[in-house]
Write a structure and sequence with these properties.
This protein is an alpha/beta fold. 49% of the residues lie in helices and 14% in strands. Helix 6 packs across helix 7 and helix 18 packs across helix 19. Bound molecules: adenosine-5'-triphosphate and magnesium ion. The site of magnesium ion has 3 residues, from helix 8.
């Protein structure tokens, strides 16, 4: 049975291709060659591979251009960039554009084997659940929901399953956990996505206003009602109505909502005629509705209706492993918004975030990152850019316990990036690079080795 892993080496230097062929064939790979990016893309059309080794500098279509095209394919294989040592900066760009890893030329044979093997394992792993991952990542992209923790994956899976149905969904979670984000995703992934998504915050309006906002009124229904006005139910026709903070809904409006759900009609104020409505209802609350029902503050029959499906978004402190991704996301988005180029965060910054209990969840994190972006004088955010509430609890905890930091890879990456940047800025001069990083030459040497930026002897 022919079941060899397939490796494509894309390079304009025939010598390099031959070297890779010789080494990797021995490792059990089937090798395909292409001498430039264009040929690589043509071959991939008919001949999918598991891993691609891609040279940066090539005629016709260079590495970056090719990577971009490969990434547009469905289920792209992992791409390892190959670059001359002097141009590692562009390799970092390539990593940002989605390359799996990179190697410097002339290639170290052991490193070549290790990196290709890692890439192959990665491609096997991703293939296993590509279908689900595909759907989830599409969802994450379109809804910009960030999170790889088990808890968030489960939320996303549920969204995927539930969105296309007509079921009412109750979204639960503490303040700032992303309830509105999930509501939007449910709408956008549904058959009603072409229709409107209308939101009502039940806590934001006084009772009388809330009623007319929800159901509308007829001209003359009360003083000041000079013309007919449709309610949010009518405005959401053929779309989705999102009732936020439903726990604050007054009792007599609960009855009217229940009727709208059961009989699919609403009655505008001052009207004698009912109006048919075709609306899917999503609701959110940070209250425990079970308790509200027991207290008699919330109608049980409405609770059952709303709660056909329940999506519970866990608080951020229970999924701290999502911190690094969320932080990168907010740095990108909020850096652009504030017109500041921020490259990353240092280790202490993430450690402090990791030690904090996040009562305001993702919204609080978003605010903290934005504040740091605005305050920071450097393009790497540090612990001094954080508010006292966070650093205080950090230094307190630090005395008592050792630190556990999630996303160690991310930290490694950001250190590696910082090294590469400093090397580039100082044109590879070790002494100056060490000085610019505020570390000794020896520890620079150590770090360069650790990150594979120079070869261990
Ligand atoms: N998983 C996530 N990925 C990216 N951004 C997120 C995520 N979760 C929340 N956010 C962002 O955090 C902020 C708060 O989210 P959202 O308004 O959806 O929370 P909420 O649960 O409705 O809060 P509240 O209970 O205060 O109404 C928003 O700016 C949202 O975009
Ligand atoms: Mg909200």
């Amino acid at each position: 049975m022919q079941n060899k892993p397939r490796l494509m080496v894309v390079d304009d230097e025939a010598g390099h291709r031959q070297m890779v062929r010789a080494v990797m064939q021995d490792e059990g790979y089937e090798i395909f060659e292409a001498e430039n990016g264009r040929k690589c893309l043509v071959q991939l059309q008919k001949n999918p591979v598991d891993v691609i080794l891609l040279d940066m500098k090539m005629p016709v279509l260079d590495g970056m251009g090719t990577l971009e095209q490969i990434k547009k394919r469905q289920n792209p294989p992992p791409v390892v960039m190959v670059t001359a040592f002097g141009s590692v900066g562009s390799a970092v760009e390539a990593m940002k554009a989605g390359a799996f890893d990179y190697l410097t030329k002339p290639a170290d044979i052991d490193e070549l084997k290790v990196v290709v093997k890692k890439a192959h394992e990665y491609s096997l792993l991703t293939r296993e659940n590509t279908q689900l991952k595909d759907r989830i990542s599409k969802l994450q992209k379109s809804a910009r929901i960030i999170g790889q923790s088990m808890a968030m994956r489960q939320v996303m899976e549920l969204v995927e399953q539930v969105a296309p149905t007509e079921a009412n969904v109750l979204i639960l979670g503490e303040s700032g956990t992303g309830k509105e984000l999930i509501a939007r995703a449910l709408h956008e992934e549904s058959a009603r996505s072409e229709g409107p998504l209308v939101k009502v915050n039940c806590a934001a309006l006084p009772e009388e206003l809330l009623e007319s906002e929800l159901f509308g009124y007829r001209k003359g229904a009360f003083t000041g009602a000079v013309q007919d006005k449709p309610g949010r139910f009518q405005l959401a026709e053929k779309g989705t109505l999102f009732l936020d903070e439903i726990g604050e809904l007054p009792k007599h409006l609960q009855a009217k909502i229940l009727r709208a759900l059961q009989e699919r009609v609403v009655e505008p104020l001052g009207s004698v005629r009912e109006q048919k409505v075709d609306v899917r209802l999503l609701a959110a609350t940070n209250k425990d509705l079970d308790i509200e029902v027991k207290k008699g503050a919330f109608r049980q029959d409405l609770y059952f209706r709303l709660n056909v499906l329940e999506i519970m978004i866990p608080p951020l402190r229970d999924r701290l492993e999502d911190l690094p991704l969320l932080v990168s996301h907010f740095i990108r988005v909020l850096g652009d918004k504030n017109r500041k180029q921020v490259r990353g965060v240092d280790r202490s910054f993430l450690e402090a975030l990791n030690n904090y209990h996040w009562p305001g969840n993702v919204r609080e994190l978003e605010n903290v990152v934005e504040r740091a972006i605005i305050l920071s004088r450097s393009d790497v955010l540090g612990v001094s850019d954080l508010p006292a509430a966070i650093t205080d609890s950090f230094s307190r905890d630090k005395k008592n316990q050792s630190l556990e930091v999630p996303g160690d890879d991310y930290l490694k990456e950001s250190e590696k990036e910082a090294l590469i940047r400093a090397l580039r800025d100082n044109k590879g001069h070790r002494e100056k690079t060490a000085a610019s990083l505020g570390i000794s030459r020896r520890s620079l040497q150590y770090k360069l080795k650790k990150h594979g930026l120079i070869r261990p002897h």
